[in-house]
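re: ur question from earlier - yeah i can do the single chain one, its not a big deal. heres the input i used so u can compare w yours
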Amino acid sequence: MPFNIEKYRGLISRIAGAIILFFVLASKSRWETENEIFTFILFVIGIVLVGVASLGRMWCSLYVAGYKDEQLVTNGPYSLCRNPLYFFSLLGVIGIGFCTETLTFPILFLILFSSYYPFVIKSEEKRLLSNFGAEFESYIHKTPAFFPKFSLFEEPATYLVNPVVYRIHIFSALWFIWFVGILEVIEGLRETGVIGSLWSIY
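and the output i got, formated as tokens:
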């Protein structure tokens, strides 16, 4: 029986998150003392990416909340590319990496994302092809898989949203912001001497 990567995506993400949190707790940016201006720039870049990612994920959730597997969504962010939710997630994880005020973590997060999510996307598109057939094939030929093509943008004048499902999706869209808050708490605890670091990285 083939491994269903979609089924265990949540569990894998939580395990990866716990491992990442450990390394963030144990690591300290060398630039904190060597170049404070550079660490400030890294943090600002991270905050901008996290903000864009959170807004983008909420935008995507507006269109898919309550419609998953019920109909093929091709409007709004889904007119730009077939996987805008994952595109914004990539921006978010890289943003979190920059918020650690290092270059190591954003590079590491990019590698981890690139090693895992293509398989998730492939699995999801296989299911969508099975569910929607020729309609999804047409969508594939017209719309890029991952990186947005803004000339394709389309949105309806009105759109029916399921508020209950959307409210749940909002919480998952904001976890990037929560993670930045956790990073700030960790940094505060480190500055007050409550916790230390095992190593320092660039």
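The CA atoms of residues 20 and 50 lie 17 Å apart. not sure if urs matches, ping me
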